[in-house]
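HUMAN:
Sorry, I am quite new to this. Are you able to go through these amino acid letters and fold codes? The numbers rather puzzle me.
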Amino acid sequence: MRILSVDIGGSHIKTLLSGETPDAKRRSPSGSDFTPAQMVETIHAMRTSDEFDVMTIGVPSPIKDGRILKSPVNLGPGWKDFDFADAFKGTPIRLMNDAAMQAVGSYEKGKMLFLGLGTGLGTCMIAHHVVMPMELGHLPFKNGRSFEQYVGEASREDLGTKAWRKEVWQTVTTLKEGLLPDVICLGGGNAKRIAKHPDEIPSFVTLGENTNAFLGGFRVWQDERYEVTIPVLGSGDDASKS
């Protein structure tokens, strides 16, 4: 089975085929005006349909039962309830929140909480291969502001990286006490700023690579334990053909 993993972000859309190394990924600009129709055109421009059998698409938005509940704040209009199966007729698709996709790629065992440090705060819990995307970033944290408002990129730019790291560790501590994960994985583009200070990292925290999003897109097809929580959108002739 050949899998195309698609990671849609606020600045770029990236694709990687199973069997390729991360260096082989292809990318194209997205942005605040990027629509689902442009997404379809971009994927077709980057990859031909005979290169893959199935797809995983990660989108920076809450998703339930294979449907986008709210259009991403950093992309264009039209994403809510967009019919991905119709847009890619004949290709089985698994649609995921982008943080959940990176979480699956970072997951090893037990109960893991994933925190994606980027423009905002992406969150996902995985417990024994059951994937539970969350919107913890929008919960109130302190002083009438949310977790995301303290650890998102705008806060880092405002506070400075050193003070921002303190907010990250306070967020980590608060969520650990409330959710009791075995491990917390920090991913997203700003995890690299945490990695520069290994002496600050607690023993229960791991760091995930951004390329793990592609790996997560592959794993949901390769490991049947993910079938329950990540539904297939397209029917296709045979989702397991190779």
